[in-house]
From TrEMBL:
Protein name as it appears in the record: 2-hydroxyacid dehydrogenase
Domain of life: Bacteria
Coiled coil (UniProt feature): none
Keyword Oxidoreductase applies: yes
Top-tier EC class: oxidoreductase
Record keywords, A-Z: NAD, Oxidoreductase
Transmembrane segments: none
Organism, scientific name: Streptomyces bluensis
Domain called D-isomer specific 2-hydroxyacid dehydrogenase NAD-binding: residue spans: 114-300
Residue ranges annotated for the D-isomer specific 2-hydroxyacid dehydrogenase catalytic domain, each copy included: 22-329
Length: 337
């Protein structure tokens, strides 16, 4: 069987091939493509029973019909989130779907703090200046994090890792989630209402999945509650933040800084080289004009440790499919015969 993987990054491919070679020992071939799966590229999967996909692939009902019509029977998502997959359509088409339920939480949590520190201490602007031998400190003053308040929205594995780092800085911890995490309580975290957290926190970091009830969780009303000098960090999913509302807030001169590793309309942009093209996404272009906003291209997870865990879990998911097994990573089980 030949397995095809879409949206494979150059640094990811050697790890992906090594893990699959070790797992299957030549029983299955792996074809790696830089293409992202969408309505235009879905026909290229014809003849491949197993397709490896990613968070920026578009797997709506139309794409899934094309895949199923071409012989695909299993989708292995190389990510935790699955909001890009129409699971109802997949089940109706008899497609098995699996994901990577978890991987190194430290990769994302550490990167979230890297964004927060870079924004707080104006590191990107400072580095740009020194490259031009401008060594002034004007406009580069930041704030100590010690003694300030970190608001952690979502206290699962990543949110907890983020909270531990905040605790190390000597910060007060506020949390919001549907259930209280004992590990966070042990750090001294106080769970509060969402509105209270937004109003009190100096740094707000988002660590919840994108679901119907979390879409635009940070909207105009939420942003209005935040302190004028608060820092907002999103390393989870772009749809958690209402970009238009964020632009209006920034235009009003509010928020001390924003660090975004994800963006609402990142599909078709992130992971691609658009440097020689006209940027037609006006909202993203406008975000880039604010000197207190730092945007990175969904790289928070991108450490060797995390990627190795992701590809190893993906290989196990394929092994489970071949063996007719289901597990914690299964989103849509194989159809009943």
């Amino acid at each position: 069987m030949e397995i095809v993987a879409y949206g494979v990054l150059k640094d990811e491919e050697p790890l992906l091939r090594a893990v699959f070679d070790r797992a299957f020992r030549g029983r299955h071939e792996l074809r790696c493509l830089e293409l992202f799966l969408n309505r235009d590229t879905a026909p290229t999967a014809a003849g491949h029973e197993v397709v490896l996909c990613g968070a920026n692939d578009t797997l709506d009902a139309e794409v899934l019909r094309t895949l199923a019509g071409g012989g695909t029977r299993m989708l292995a998502q190389r990510a935790t989130g699955f909001n890009n997959i129409d699971l109802t359509a997949a089940e109706a088409l008899g497609l098995t779907v699996a994901r990577v339920a978890s991987y190194s939480p430290y990769s994302v949590a550490e990167f979230a703090w890297a964004l927060a520190l870079a924004v707080d201490r104006r590191i990107v602007r400072a580095a740009g200046r020194t490259r031009e031998f401008d060594f002034r400190l004007d406009g580069l003053m930041g704030r100590d994090l010690h003694g300030r308040t970190a608001g952690v929205v979502g206290t699962g594995r990543i949110g907890t890792a983020f909270a531990r780092i905040a605790h190390g800085f000597g910060m007060r911890l506020l949390g919001w989630d549907v259930t209280e995490n004992p590990d966070c309580l042990a750090l001294g975290m106080r769970y509060v209402e969402h509105e209270w957290l937004l109003a009190e926190a100096d740094v707000v970091s988002l660590h919840v999945p994108l679901l119907s009830n979390t879409h635009h969780l940070v909207d105009a009303e939420a942003l209005a509650l935040m302190k004028d000098d608060a820092i907002l960090i999103n390393t989870s999913r772009g749809g958690l933040v209402d970009t238009d509302a964020l632009l209006e807030t920034l235009r009003a001169g509010r928020l001390g800084g924003v660090g975004l590793d994800v963006y609402e309309e990142e599909a078709g942009l992130f992971f691609l080289d658009k440097s020689l093209e006209v940027m037609t996404d006006e909202r993203l272009a406008r975000l880039m004009t604010f000197n207190n906003v730092l945007v990175t291209s969904h790289q928070a997870y991108f450490t060797r440790d995390a990627v190795e865990q992701i590809v190893e879990t993906t290989a196990r998911n394929v092994e489970d499919y071949v063996a007719g097994r289901t597990g914690d990573n299964t989103l849509v089980p194989p159809p009943q015969s």
